[in-house]
Amino acid sequence: MNLLPPTSLALCMALAWPLATHAQTDHSGHHAPAAAVPSPPTPATAPATAADASTAAASLPWAEAEVRRIDDQAGKISLRHGPIANLDMPPMTMVFQVQDRGLLARAKPGDRVRFTADKINGQYTVLQLEPAS
Ligand SMILES: [Cu+2]
Q1: Which of 42, 60, 97, 99 would you label with 24, given CA atoms 20 to 30 Å apart?
Q2: CB atoms within 10 A of CB 105
Q3: For the segment 37-76, what is each residue's pLDDT rounded down to a tens digit?
Q4: How many angstroms does the Cα of residue 48 sit away from the middle of ligand 1?
């Protein structure tokens, strides 16, 4: 008579604890992956191709150039440019596409400018352009 209560209590505890811990780990195990994914390297590699055009512009290194020619109709600009780090390009004179033709209004032949450029759809394209100070 004296042994029953402790035993059933111990049994109760033994059953309750594992259940409680299982329920907790199952739960957090369910939520943890979804919440943890944004911080590991996954997002860093994902934007590589998709978000190139918009997000990359902000992080591209600026290069310097002198404007040689501007073709408003074709949306092209000829630049005698310095090294372009992200394109691994040495100084040269060449023609770029311009992503936004409004940029062409900000420069005229002979102007010193600074600009960012990237290869978009196989074409060297100016993304940002402003007068060099
Ligand atoms: Cu070039």
Answers
A1: 42
A2: 10
A3: 444 444 444 444 444 445 556 689 999 999 999 999 999 9
A4: 23
pLDDT digits (tens, 9 = 90+) for 117-131: 999 999 999 999 999
Q: Which CATH number fits domain 49-131: 2.40.50.320, 2.40.37.20, 1.20.1640.10, 3.30.70.1050?
A: 2.40.50.320
User: Rounded to the nearest whole angstrom, what is the distance from the C-alpha of residue 88 to the centroid of ligand 1?
Assistant: 9
Provide the 3-class DSSP secondary structure of residue 12: helix
CA of 23 to the centre of ligand 1 (A): 61
- Asked if the model's pLDDT at residue 35 lies above 70, the reply is no
Domain boundaries, the chain: 1-36, 49-131
